[in-house]
Design a protein that fits this description.
Length: about 240
C-alpha cells in the first residue's frame, strides 16, 4: 500500500494516527526533565485540548510536535513516521503540513498582515490572484478586514494573535497546533476563533489547542490532555 495518506480510503485514513508519543521525555540542555513519560495518540481528524498550569510543559510538548525540540528519550511518530529519523531536508515538507499558532505570534515585521497570512500559500507556490480573495475573507472573519495593509508592529497584541491564527489556518494544514491562541482576545472573539479551529477540524485537520480557558474547553465535547509538572495526569472528556 502507498504511504501517501491521500491514496487511502477515508476509513483507513480515519484510523491513522497523526501524532503518537511513546514514553517521551524532554529536557532543555542539561537541565532537568520538563516532560516525562508522555504517551498519547492524536488520531487523524481528532480535536484535543491541552491544559495545565503555567510551567506544566504545554509549549514544550507543542515544540516537540513541530520538531523545534527533540525528545531526550522515547519515540515520537508524526504522520506515521518516526520523527527521530527524519532527515533535516524533510523538515520543511513536514512543517508545511502543520499550522502553528505560536505563543509569541512570530509574524514577520517587514510584511503586511495580508502578506504574513498569505505566506504559507506563497511558499506552496500559489499565485496571488488565486489566494487574494481567501486571505481577505479569512482576515475579515478574524476582524482584521481593515488592517490588511498594516505592519505587525502597529497592531495590538490581540490583533497580532488573530493574524497569527489566520496564517496558521489559511493553508488548511493536516495538523494545527495552537499555543494559547485566545490569550489576548475578548471572550466573544475567543469563541469565534474556536469556531475557526472546529471548522478546520471538520474539514479533516487534527487539532491540538493548548489553553487555560476552561470556558472554551467546556464549550466543546472534546478530549483534554492535562499536564501537571511535565506529566500527563489525565486524558479526560470535558464536563
Ligand atoms: N528554552 C528553555 N530553556 C530552559 N527551560 C525552559 C525553556 N522553555 C521552557 N523551559 C522550562 O520548561 C518548563 C515547561 O515550560 P513550558 O513553557 O513548556 O510550560 P507551559 O505549560 O507552556 O507554561 P505557560 O502556560 O506559562 O506557557 C518550565 O519549567 C520552564 O521553565
Amino acid at each position: 500500500m502507498s504511504s501517501d495518506p491521500n491514496d487511502m480510503t477515508p476509513e483507513a485514513q480515519a484510523n491513522e494516527t497523526t501524532v503518537r508519543f511513546d514514553s517521551v521525555g524532554m529536557r532543555y540542555g542539561r537541565g532537568p526533565e520538563v516532560l516525562s513519560d508522555l504517551s498519547f495518540d492524536l488520531p487523524s481528524g481528532s480535536f484535543h485540548f491541552l491544559t495545565g498550569p503555567s510551567g506544566a510543559g504545554k509549549s514544550s510538548l507543542l515544540r516537540l510536535i513541530y520538531r523545534a525540540e527533540r525528545p531526550s528519550r522515547g519515540l515520537i511518530t508524526l504522520f506515521g513516521r518516526d520523527a527521530s529519523v527524519l532527515p533535516r531536508d524533510a523538515l520543511p515538507a513536514l512543517r508545511r503540513r502543520i499550522g502553528v499558532v505560536f505563543q509569541d505570534f512570530r509574524l514577520l515585521d517587514h510584511l503586511t498582515v495580508f502578506d504574513n497570512v498569505a505566506l504559507p500559500l506563497r511558499v506552496a507556490g500559489q499565485a496571488r490572484a488565486a489566494y487574494a480573495e481567501d486571505v481577505a475573507e479569512l482576515l475579515a472573519w478574524v476582524g482584521l478586514g481593515d488592517r490588511m495593509d498594516a505592519f505587525p508592529s502597529t497592531l495590538s497584541g490581540g490583533e497580532q494573535q488573530r493574524a497569527a491564527i489566520a496564517r496558521a489556518v489559511i493553508s488548511k494544514p493536516d495538523l494545527l497546533i495552537a499555543d494559547e491562541p485566545t490569550g489576548n482576545v475578548d471572550p466573544e472573539m475567543a469563541r469565534r476563533l474556536l469556531r475557526l479551529f472546529v471548522e478546520l477540524n471538520r474539514l479533516g485537520a487534527t487539532v491540538l489547542m493548548a489553553t487555560h480557558d476552561l470556558t472554551l474547553v467546556n464549550s466543546l465535547n472534546a478530549p483534554v490532555l492535562e499536564l501537571s509538572d511535565g506529566r500527563l495526569v489525565g486524558k479526560v472528556r470535558a464536563a
